[in-house]
Amino acid sequence: MSRLEIEDLRVDFASRTGPVPALRGVSLSVGGGRLGIVGESGSGKSTMGRAIMGLLPATAKVSARRFQFAETDLLKASPAQKRALRGRRIGLIMQDPRYALNPVMTAGAQIAECFKLHHGLGGKVAKIRSLDLLAAVRINDPEAVYDQYPHQLSGGMGQRVMIAIALAGEPELLIADEPTSALDASVRTSFLGLLDQIIRERGMSLILISHDLHLVANFCDRVLVMYGGQVMEECTAAHLTAPQHAYTRALAACRPSLTERLPDLRTFTRDPAWMEAKS
User: Fold this and answer.
1) What pLDDT sits at residue 278?
2) What is the predicted pLDDT for the residue at 259?
3) Domains delineated in the chain
4) Structure confidence at residue 247 (pLDDT)
5) What angle, rounded to 10 degrees, do the helices at 123-136 and 107-119 form?
6) CB contact at 8 A, 213 and 240
7) What tens digit of pLDDT does each residue of 62-103 get?
8) pLDDT value at position 171?
9) Where are the beta strands (DSSP E) in 178-262?
10) Parallel, antiparallel, or unpaired: how do β-strands 4-13 and 66-69 relate?
11) For residue 60, what are the contacts with CB-CB under 8 A and spacing of at least 6?
12) pTM here?
C-alpha cells in the first residue's frame, strides 16, 4: 500500500496586500485505512485535498519539509508526473456533481475518457468497462445512464457517476471532498454504504473531507480537526466523542440535537489563542 507522507505543509495565496496563508504547517500520514479531515468552511480542508492532487492555481505557493506519495516527491514532481498520479493512483470525488461533471459530455463518455487516458483502452472496451463500473456503483440501468447528460441525473445518481470516474483509474488513495453535502439523508446513507463497500473490496486508502463530525466519527478510523489552516487535534474516531482541544469541543457542542428543543442554534466564540498555540 502506497503511503502519503506530509510534514509541515504550507500553502499561501498571492493577493494585492501580500500572501494569504491557507495551510499553516499541516502534517499527516496515510498508508491504509480511513482518515477524516473535519472543520468549518474555510479551515483549509479542501485546499489540503487539492494540494495533494496538484490542482491548486498558479497563485498558490506550496512548501513543506516532506510532501511525498509513494516514491514521488510532490513538491519536485513535474506536471507530467502529477498527471500520471492524478486519477491513476490518487482519485478524487468532488463535492457537487452539478458543477464537477462536464455538462456537454454524457456520463458514460466521461467515465470512458478515464479508461482511455489511464489504461489506453479503445472505444468499445472503454464503454464495456464503463458500463461495468456503473453497475458496480449500484446504478440499475447502466445503459440508460451511460447516455445521459449531467443535468438529467439526480444528485445521488450524479454522485455515483463521480465515484465511477474516480474508480476508473483504479487508484490506491481516494480523496472524497464533502461527497454527501449535496445529498438528502436517505440518499446519503445509501451513498456511504456504497463507498464503504468499494473501499473494502478494492483495499483503497481514504481521505474523507467533511464538516460533519458525526459522519467522520462513524465512517473513519482517524480524524484531523482543522481550524484556520492548522490541525487543532488528531485522534482516533472513537475518541472524537471526548475531544481534548477547546475548538473541537466547541464544534461538538454546536451540533443540533434530535431530542432537545432549542430556541436558537448554538454558536461559539473563537479564541485567538487557538491560532497562536499552533503557529
Assistant:
1) 55
2) 74
3) 1-84+222-279 (3.40.50)
4) 87
5) 120
6) yes
7) 999 999 999 999 999 999 999 999 999 999 998 888 889 999
8) 93
9) 205-210, 222-227, 230-236
10) antiparallel
11) 11, 12, 13, 14, 22, 51
12) 0.90
In the numeric block, the cell 500500500 is attached to 1
Predicted local distance difference test score (pLDDT) of residue 146 = 96
Which of 247, 215, 252, 220 has the alpha carbon at shortest distance from 236? 220
Taking the C-alpha atoms of residue 194 and residue 246, their distance in angstroms, rounded to an integer, is 34
- Between helix 123-136 and helix 155-168 the angle, nearest 10°, is 130
Residues 6 or more apart whose CB falls under 8 angstroms from that of 221 comprise 33, 34, 35, 236, 237
User: Could you tell me if 93 and 175 are in contact, meaning their C-beta atoms sit under 8 angstroms apart?
Assistant: yes
Residues in the chain with pLDDT < 50? 279
Residues 6+ apart with CB under 8 A from 142: 131, 132, 134, 135
Q: Is the dihedral of CA 96, 102, 107, 113 positive or negative?
A: negative
* Separation of alpha carbons 117 and 244, rounded Å: 46
Backbone torsions φ then ψ of 66, nearest 5 degrees:
-150, 130
Q: In the block, which residue shows the cell 477524516?
A: 36
Q: Nearest CA to 207 among 178, 169, 244, 236?
A: 178
Q: Which amino acid is at 212?
A: D
